[in-house]
Amino acid sequence: MSFIFSLESAFMENSHPENAAPMAKYMRNHFAFFGIKTTERRRLFKEIWKQNKAEVTENCRTVALQLFAKKQREFHYCAIEILIKELKQNYLKDDIHLIKKLITENSWWDSVDTISKYILGEYLLEFPDETDAVVKLFSNADNMWLNRSVILFQLGYKKKTNFELLKSICLKQQSSSEFFIQKAIGWALREYAKTDSEAVKEFVAVTAFKPLSRKEALKNT
């Protein structure tokens, strides 16, 4: 695809090896980087996207998967940003399989959190009848990132948040020893506290959360 070829060429031409190592270290060396910082990456990416708009729009899922299969982390960010824009109001019910793949491959907090809020969260707004099934599937999965994603998918919902559902998900994971699960519980509850702080305080008061979850949940109440 000309879009991917052009993007790869631009990233290679604008790589910054002096930045690549620190960026990889920040991500615990899980991924390679070109060393292109976010502002510059987005500028290059948007220019090439604009030049190849029809190709990307018509093949957005395929383009995203091909980008996600590449080694450098900058490609993964581009894949996610494409799907956020191109799939909004255009999701298919079967896209849950794509979403699951994105969460479980090249997994780390930076990708999973963005996918959870802006892709999984949007998908379930468009297909609310799928919420219970997806939450059950992901929360029961033997994959910490899927577990985290359903804790976080309502982050942008505000008054649309189903607090009873959020509570049930948090209770299911309350004893987890995983740092990323404890942190997600606290983050999700802290975010909902902006809408209803008393409800969050009451819930935390009667629930045996791990100290990290409790601290994060009550940080701004």
Automatic annotation (TrEMBL):
SUPFAM superfamilies: ARM repeat
Gene3D superfamilies: ARM repeat domains, Hypothetical protein (EF3068)
CDD domains for the chain: AlkD_like_1
Pfam families: DNA_alkylation
PANTHER family reported in the protein's UniProt record: ARMADILLO-TYPE FOLD (PTHR34070), DNA ALKYLATION REPAIR PROTEIN (PTHR34070:SF1)
Name this polypeptide is given: DNA-7-methylguanine glycosylase
Organism from which the protein derives: Flavobacterium granuli
